[in-house]
Amino acid sequence: MLRWRGLESTPGDLGRTVVTVGMYDGVHRGHQTLIGAAVARARAMRRPCLLLTFDPHPAEVVRPGSHPAILTSLDRKAELVAGLGVDAMCVLPFTPEFSRLTRETFTHSVLVERLHAAQVVVGENFTYGHKASGNVGTLAEEGRRFGFAVEGVALAQDSSDDGEVTISSTYVRACVAAGDMVSAARALGRLHRVDGVVVRGDRRGRDLGYPTANVESPQYTAIPADGVYAGHLVTRDPRSGASQERLPAAISVGTNPTFQGSRRTVEAFVLDFDGDLYGEHVGVEFAHRLRPMAAFDDVHGLLAAMAKDVADTRQVLRL
Ligand SMILES: Cc1cc2nc3c(=O)[nH]c(=O)nc-3n(C[C@H](O)[C@H](O)[C@H](O)COP(=O)(O)O)c2cc1C
Ligand SMILES: Nc1ncnc2c1ncn2[C@@H]1O[C@H](COP(=O)(O)OP(=O)(O)O)[C@@H](O)[C@H]1O
């Protein structure tokens, strides 16, 4: 998949394109339907399918300090959308100036002049332009003027304990924040993953008999609620970010209150594994929450709980 940042870096030889526009944070099942529709349309028209997305999250620019938790880094998003058949991903820096473009200027200067859209595929709730004044109806009207067609795709639904919910990044963030990884996975169509680099911790794990890979992730990463989880550690290629090996793990999220820690960490004890992971680019996948984080009176209490966590992890992962 081709990938570039900034409109000025757009390759000149793309020809006319099928464009799908959105933040696509999480690349959840609703996004997958939408991107699938854009890819199918592109194949039928024998045009490249181009995904236009933004960085940072527009909320941070429009309402400073209100950055939402990020479900997928740009590298992970690229890996996922490439897997859906997208041919090119263009990342537009979302700046205050960009946020002030009128909807016609966005349509003309971005979609028409730079990306040469023949067809635009968006969700039926898509908005664009200054103060989000544009919608699918205005885009279709501009398309008639500038010579591209518009397809608005219905949003995917999911049944949960609370009845029908519309699958959205906001819904997945709420599931992750509550530690409900099963609902998050249902909406995502795969397990939620935190990407980062393995850093040094307090060097206590090995002495306890449970060495843990401490994973440091970028600011704003959507980290599940404090607690202990069954899941996996995924090793990644440091250059491409591509996923490699997937190893079963018991995962701890919290401040290690037994040792009066103050920093919140994500730590994975990889089952049946002994090796050096420091500096590795990894992902931590969360399958199921086992219990809350606890402050034990002594190390024996913690060790007994960890032994049970490992047994529970084997059961949840059917190992
Ligand atoms: C499966 C698992 C469960 C854990 N549960 C707790 C817990 O309930 N309370 C706690 O204080 N720390 C818990 N921890 C974190 C340990 O305290 C931590 O891994 C240990 O102190 C080693 O830290 P280090 O990697 O910085 O050396 C857990 C870790 C794992 C892997
Ligand atoms: N089974 C395992 N799971 C996780 N990390 C392991 C495992 N075996 C060895 N390691 C290595 O040990 C390191 C963790 O050891 P630990 O004593 O917990 O130190 P730290 O406090 O620096 O995390 C990991 O970063 C990794 O390099």
Automatic annotation (TrEMBL):
Top-down, what is the taxonomic lineage of the species of origin? Bacteria, Bacillati, Actinomycetota, Actinomycetes, Geodermatophilales
Q: Which family does it belong to?
A: Belongs to the ribF family.
Q: Where are the transmembrane segments?
A: none
Function of this protein? Catalyzes the phosphorylation of riboflavin to FMN followed by the adenylation of FMN to FAD.
Q: Which reaction does it catalyse?
A: riboflavin + ATP = FMN + ADP + H(+); FMN + ATP + H(+) = FAD + diphosphate
> EC number(s) per UniProt?
2.7.1.26, 2.7.7.2
Source organism of the structure:
Blastococcus xanthinilyticus
Q: Which GO terms describe its biological process?
A: FAD biosynthetic process; FMN biosynthetic process; riboflavin biosynthetic process
- Report whether Transcription shows up as a keyword of the record: no
What keywords sit in the KW lines?
A: ATP-binding, FAD, Flavoprotein, FMN, Kinase, Multifunctional enzyme, Nucleotide-binding, Nucleotidyltransferase, Transferase
Its pathway, per UniProt, is: Cofactor biosynthesis; FAD biosynthesis; FAD from FMN: step 1/1; Cofactor biosynthesis; FMN biosynthesis; FMN from riboflavin (ATP route): step 1/1
Q: Which residues form the Riboflavin kinase domain?
A: 187-318
Any idea what this protein is called?
A: Riboflavin biosynthesis protein
GO molecular function terms here? ATP binding; FMN adenylyltransferase activity; riboflavin kinase activity
Q: Which PANTHER family match?
A: RIBOFLAVIN KINASE (PTHR22749:SF6), RIBOFLAVIN KINASE/FMN ADENYLYLTRANSFERASE (PTHR22749)
**Which Gene3D superfamilies does the entry mention?**
HUPs (3.40.50.620), Riboflavin kinase-like (2.40.30.30)
